Transcription elongation factor, mitochondrial
Amino acid sequence: MSVHCLLVAGGSVPGILGRWRCFPVPVGSSLVQGLHNSCCRKKSTAPKKVIPSVALCDENTKKSGNALDKLFSSEQQASILQVLNTASNKELEAFRLLRGRKSINIIEHREKFGPFQNLESLMNVPLFQYKTAIQVCNSILCPETEGEKRKFQDNRLLRKLIKPEIKRERLKAVNSIVSIVFGTRRIAWAHLDRKLAVLDWQQSECCQLMKGTYLSSVYLQEISSVISKMPNADLYVLEKIGLSIQNSSRFPVLLHFHIMEAMLYALLNKTFVQDGQHRVLSMNRNGVGKHFELMIGDTRTSGKELVKQFLSESVLKEEPRVVFPSEKIVRYRQMFSSTEQQRAEELYDSLLQAIAFYELAVFDTEP
């Protein structure tokens, strides 16, 4: 009688079968027939019903469009369609959600297919999905006021200027700040109150930090010593320099700046663990440069002459832009004169940064 050999997983058996065992099975047995049917079952040749993806997309768009029409009354729909069908590209961009490519797409769709007949047809415009279409329709019905537009623009500019993001209420309530600017050889700070009175302004040499192997203990010792001289303030504002890491020759300087920034954040944010409130912020250097018109292309020029002007105006004008207390003006002018040959840009920049912070973030006004 003919037999088939059935392999079954089992205990370890030496030889080429490894961990499999061989059992004889008669040819006509139901076990062999069942295994054959299971392994050699023919695939069904009946064609499967395929729903085209385009049809699904059209169906979903149609349902969303119908739902979109139901969200607004006939009067509201008429108002929205009036804007979509008659507004110019510039007029459409007045709505915040229609700026950029969306307004262009509406104009192009209108020119190609004619006026929008209903809100559902808005779903056929590129970049307009269901949720976006609802937001756009609502913005057309309830356009932003000039105050809201300005507030949005101000918040956007503020986010680019200052990191991390901080609530406006806290900024408006600030009474004094310490503005800190550090370079490769020195660190300078200016302490100003909200009347733009210079309460303290000085610098400290840190020549040893970039020598050797950037030891954390050396940085901690040097920076702790500098911080001990700084006055208390509501906020501490550090200058943020945007150096590119692609230039490998600048890597030692970039490393130095990152270590300095991290140390200052850690040592000055004394209450962060308890209240989670940032007391240390970083301010974009070029943003300050633009505020004082010190930028030539992407390069910021020296603020030395501007600081010199502020010092003079403090004596000559009744209402100067920056107030240097009379009992300190002589000392500040002597300090400025003594640094003129040293190019003490950190000293000048610390003062300019403090003024720009108040004028841009606290007062929210241009001089």
In short: Residues 70 and 119 are 10 Å apart (CA to CA). The longest helix spans residues 53-70. Strands lie at 3-9, 20-26, 162-163, 176-182, 186-193, 198-205, 235-240, 280-284, 295-296, 299-300.
